[in-house]
Amino acid sequence: MRIRRAVIIAVVLFLALLTVVSFLLLITSSSSDAATLATLFAGALAADVVVWQGYLIKRQLAFSTYLDLDKEWNSQEMIEARQRVHTPDSDEWDYSRLETILEFLEKLSLMFRVSGDMRLLYRTTLGWYASRYFLFARHHGQIDHLRELWSERVYGDIEDFYDLYLSWEVGRSKGKRANWEKKCLATEMSFWNQEQKD
Questions:
Q1: How far is CA 32 from the centre of its chain?
Q2: By the 8 A CB rule, do 88 and 193 touch?
Q3: Could you report the per-residue pLDDT of 123-146, keeping only the tens digit for each?
Q4: What is the spatial distance between Cα 119 and Cα 37, in angstroms, rounded to a whole number?
Q5: Contact 19, 48 (CB under 8 A)
Protein backbone atom coordinates (compact mmCIF):
# COMPACT_ATOMS: atom_id res chain seq x y z
CA MET A 1 0.00 0.00 0.00
CA ARG A 2 2.90 2.35 0.76
CA ILE A 3 4.41 1.57 -2.64
CA ARG A 4 1.13 2.44 -4.32
CA ARG A 5 0.94 5.74 -2.45
CA ALA A 6 4.57 6.50 -3.36
CA VAL A 7 3.84 5.85 -7.05
CA ILE A 8 0.80 8.14 -6.97
CA ILE A 9 2.81 10.88 -5.28
CA ALA A 10 5.64 10.45 -7.82
CA VAL A 11 3.23 10.72 -10.76
CA VAL A 12 1.55 13.81 -9.33
CA LEU A 13 4.92 15.44 -8.65
CA PHE A 14 6.10 14.61 -12.17
CA LEU A 15 2.99 16.15 -13.69
CA ALA A 16 3.33 19.22 -11.51
CA LEU A 17 6.98 19.59 -12.50
CA LEU A 18 6.08 19.14 -16.17
CA THR A 19 3.48 21.89 -15.87
CA VAL A 20 5.88 24.29 -14.15
CA VAL A 21 8.70 23.62 -16.63
CA SER A 22 6.34 24.03 -19.58
CA PHE A 23 5.06 27.28 -18.17
CA LEU A 24 8.60 28.60 -17.60
CA LEU A 25 9.61 27.63 -21.13
CA LEU A 26 6.53 29.38 -22.46
CA ILE A 27 7.46 32.56 -20.66
CA THR A 28 11.11 32.55 -21.73
CA SER A 29 10.72 31.34 -25.30
CA SER A 30 10.72 33.38 -28.45
CA SER A 31 7.45 33.97 -30.25
CA SER A 32 8.18 31.30 -32.93
CA ASP A 33 8.32 28.55 -30.34
CA ALA A 34 5.44 29.96 -28.33
CA ALA A 35 2.79 27.92 -30.10
CA THR A 36 4.64 24.65 -29.51
CA LEU A 37 5.28 25.46 -25.89
CA ALA A 38 1.73 26.66 -25.36
CA THR A 39 0.50 23.30 -26.70
CA LEU A 40 2.90 21.46 -24.41
CA PHE A 41 1.75 23.53 -21.45
CA ALA A 42 -1.92 22.96 -22.26
CA GLY A 43 -1.29 19.21 -22.56
CA ALA A 44 0.54 19.09 -19.23
CA LEU A 45 -2.21 21.08 -17.57
CA ALA A 46 -4.88 18.79 -19.06
CA ALA A 47 -2.98 15.74 -17.77
CA ASP A 48 -2.88 17.28 -14.28
CA VAL A 49 -6.62 17.89 -14.40
CA VAL A 50 -7.32 14.32 -15.54
CA VAL A 51 -5.18 12.86 -12.74
CA TRP A 52 -6.90 15.05 -10.15
CA GLN A 53 -10.36 14.15 -11.44
CA GLY A 54 -9.45 10.45 -11.39
CA TYR A 55 -8.37 10.79 -7.77
CA LEU A 56 -11.61 12.57 -6.84
CA ILE A 57 -13.75 9.97 -8.64
CA LYS A 58 -11.91 7.17 -6.85
CA ARG A 59 -12.53 8.80 -3.47
CA GLN A 60 -16.19 9.37 -4.34
CA LEU A 61 -16.64 5.72 -5.34
CA ALA A 62 -14.97 4.55 -2.13
CA PHE A 63 -17.29 6.72 -0.06
CA SER A 64 -20.34 5.60 -2.04
CA THR A 65 -19.32 1.97 -1.47
CA TYR A 66 -18.93 2.70 2.21
CA LEU A 67 -22.46 4.15 2.38
CA ASP A 68 -23.89 1.04 0.66
CA LEU A 69 -22.03 -1.24 3.07
CA ASP A 70 -23.18 0.86 6.03
CA LYS A 71 -26.80 0.36 4.90
CA GLU A 72 -26.21 -3.39 4.73
CA TRP A 73 -24.59 -3.36 8.20
CA ASN A 74 -27.64 -1.60 9.64
CA SER A 75 -30.20 -3.72 7.78
CA GLN A 76 -32.74 -5.63 9.83
CA GLU A 77 -31.18 -8.98 8.90
CA MET A 78 -27.71 -7.90 10.02
CA ILE A 79 -29.01 -6.30 13.22
CA GLU A 80 -30.74 -9.59 14.12
CA ALA A 81 -27.51 -11.51 13.44
CA ARG A 82 -25.54 -9.08 15.61
CA GLN A 83 -28.08 -9.31 18.43
CA ARG A 84 -27.99 -13.10 18.55
CA VAL A 85 -24.43 -14.00 17.58
CA HIS A 86 -23.12 -14.27 21.13
CA THR A 87 -24.72 -14.28 24.56
CA PRO A 88 -22.77 -12.23 27.10
CA ASP A 89 -21.49 -14.25 30.08
CA SER A 90 -21.55 -17.48 28.08
CA ASP A 91 -19.41 -19.53 25.74
CA GLU A 92 -22.26 -19.91 23.27
CA TRP A 93 -21.81 -18.63 19.73
CA ASP A 94 -24.26 -18.93 16.86
CA TYR A 95 -21.85 -20.01 14.11
CA SER A 96 -24.27 -19.26 11.31
CA ARG A 97 -24.69 -15.67 12.47
CA LEU A 98 -20.99 -15.28 13.28
CA GLU A 99 -20.12 -16.41 9.75
CA THR A 100 -22.64 -13.94 8.31
CA ILE A 101 -21.04 -11.08 10.25
CA LEU A 102 -17.44 -12.12 9.56
CA GLU A 103 -18.16 -12.66 5.86
CA PHE A 104 -19.63 -9.15 5.65
CA LEU A 105 -16.58 -7.71 7.41
CA GLU A 106 -14.31 -9.77 5.14
CA LYS A 107 -16.07 -8.28 2.10
CA LEU A 108 -15.71 -4.82 3.62
CA SER A 109 -11.98 -5.31 4.22
CA LEU A 110 -11.38 -6.73 0.76
CA MET A 111 -13.23 -3.93 -1.05
CA PHE A 112 -11.29 -1.21 0.70
CA ARG A 113 -8.01 -3.08 0.33
CA VAL A 114 -8.53 -3.36 -3.44
CA SER A 115 -9.46 0.31 -3.70
CA GLY A 116 -6.42 1.33 -1.67
CA ASP A 117 -8.57 3.27 0.80
CA MET A 118 -7.97 1.31 4.00
CA ARG A 119 -7.41 4.55 5.91
CA LEU A 120 -10.96 5.61 5.03
CA LEU A 121 -12.23 2.36 6.52
CA TYR A 122 -10.07 2.85 9.63
CA ARG A 123 -11.74 6.20 10.31
CA THR A 124 -15.28 4.81 10.13
CA THR A 125 -17.65 3.10 12.51
CA LEU A 126 -17.54 -0.04 10.36
CA GLY A 127 -13.77 -0.19 10.82
CA TRP A 128 -14.28 0.08 14.57
CA TYR A 129 -16.80 -2.80 14.50
CA ALA A 130 -14.58 -4.92 12.25
CA SER A 131 -11.68 -4.66 14.67
CA ARG A 132 -13.84 -5.56 17.69
CA TYR A 133 -15.61 -8.48 16.07
CA PHE A 134 -12.32 -9.92 14.87
CA LEU A 135 -10.60 -9.43 18.24
CA PHE A 136 -13.44 -10.88 20.29
CA ALA A 137 -14.02 -13.85 17.97
CA ARG A 138 -10.28 -14.59 17.83
CA HIS A 139 -9.90 -14.22 21.61
CA HIS A 140 -12.61 -16.85 22.16
CA GLY A 141 -11.10 -19.22 19.59
CA GLN A 142 -13.92 -18.78 17.08
CA ILE A 143 -11.67 -17.70 14.20
CA ASP A 144 -9.46 -20.77 14.69
CA HIS A 145 -12.55 -22.98 14.95
CA LEU A 146 -13.97 -21.66 11.68
CA ARG A 147 -10.60 -22.00 9.98
CA GLU A 148 -10.45 -25.64 11.04
CA LEU A 149 -13.89 -26.17 9.51
CA TRP A 150 -13.33 -24.33 6.23
CA SER A 151 -9.79 -23.24 5.42
CA GLU A 152 -6.74 -21.65 7.00
CA ARG A 153 -7.15 -18.72 4.62
CA VAL A 154 -10.69 -17.84 5.62
CA TYR A 155 -10.98 -14.33 7.17
CA GLY A 156 -7.48 -13.39 6.02
CA ASP A 157 -8.60 -9.99 4.71
CA ILE A 158 -10.23 -8.99 7.97
CA GLU A 159 -7.14 -10.22 9.82
CA ASP A 160 -4.95 -8.03 7.59
CA PHE A 161 -7.28 -5.09 8.24
CA TYR A 162 -7.09 -5.75 11.97
CA ASP A 163 -3.29 -5.65 11.81
CA LEU A 164 -3.42 -2.32 9.94
CA TYR A 165 -6.02 -1.01 12.38
CA LEU A 166 -3.73 -1.77 15.31
CA SER A 167 -0.80 -0.14 13.51
CA TRP A 168 -2.80 3.06 13.03
CA GLU A 169 -4.13 2.98 16.59
CA VAL A 170 -0.95 2.22 18.55
CA GLY A 171 1.90 1.45 16.13
CA ARG A 172 3.94 -1.73 15.71
CA SER A 173 5.11 -2.15 19.31
CA LYS A 174 4.02 -5.55 20.64
CA GLY A 175 3.62 -4.12 24.13
CA LYS A 176 1.37 -1.29 22.98
CA ARG A 177 -0.69 -3.69 20.88
CA ALA A 178 -1.12 -6.09 23.79
CA ASN A 179 -2.12 -3.20 26.04
CA TRP A 180 -4.67 -1.93 23.50
CA GLU A 181 -6.15 -5.42 23.12
CA LYS A 182 -6.31 -5.83 26.91
CA LYS A 183 -8.21 -2.54 27.26
CA CYS A 184 -10.53 -3.47 24.42
CA LEU A 185 -11.22 -6.93 25.88
CA ALA A 186 -12.13 -5.25 29.17
CA THR A 187 -15.05 -3.59 27.33
CA GLU A 188 -16.25 -6.80 25.69
CA MET A 189 -19.23 -7.35 27.99
CA SER A 190 -20.49 -3.82 27.34
CA PHE A 191 -20.01 -4.37 23.61
CA TRP A 192 -22.17 -7.52 23.53
CA ASN A 193 -24.81 -5.96 25.76
CA GLN A 194 -25.02 -2.96 23.43
CA GLU A 195 -25.22 -5.20 20.36
CA GLN A 196 -28.22 -6.98 21.89
CA LYS A 197 -30.00 -3.67 22.42
CA ASP A 198 -29.63 -2.45 18.85
A1: 52
A2: yes
A3: 888 899 999 999 999 999 999 999
A4: 40
A5: yes
3-state secondary structure 156-173: HHHHHHHHHHHHHHHCCC
Q: Give CA separation, 134 vs 9, 93, 102, 144, 162, in Å.
A: 33, 14, 8, 11, 7
The DSSP element (H or E) to which 81 belongs, if any, is helix 76-84
Which candidate, 98, 106, 68, 93, places its Cα nearest to that of 81? 98
Question: Are 66 and 121 contacting, i.e. CB atoms less than 8 angstroms apart?
Answer: yes
The answer to whether the beta carbons of residues 4 and 121 sit under 8 Å apart is: no
pLDDT at residue 3 greater than cutoff 80: no
Non-local CB neighbours of 180 within 8 Å, separated by 6+ positions: 166, 169, 170
Provide the 10 A C-beta neighbour count for residue 140.
14
Question: Is 25 exposed, middle or buried, given 0-12, 13-18 or 19+ CB atoms closer than 10 A?
Answer: middle
Render pLDDT for 21-52 as a digit per residue (tens, 0 to 9).
766 665 665 555 666 766 766 777 777 778 88
Question: What is the per-residue pLDDT across 175-193, written as a single tens digit (0 to 9) for each?
Answer: 999 999 999 999 999 999 9
Residue pair 121/112 in contact (Cβ under 8 Å)? The answer is yes
Rg of the chain over Cα atoms, rounded to whole angstroms, equals 24
Numbers of helices and strands, H then E, in the chain: 10, 0
Mean pLDDT of the chain: 84
Number of Cβ atoms within 10 Å of the Cβ of 154? 18
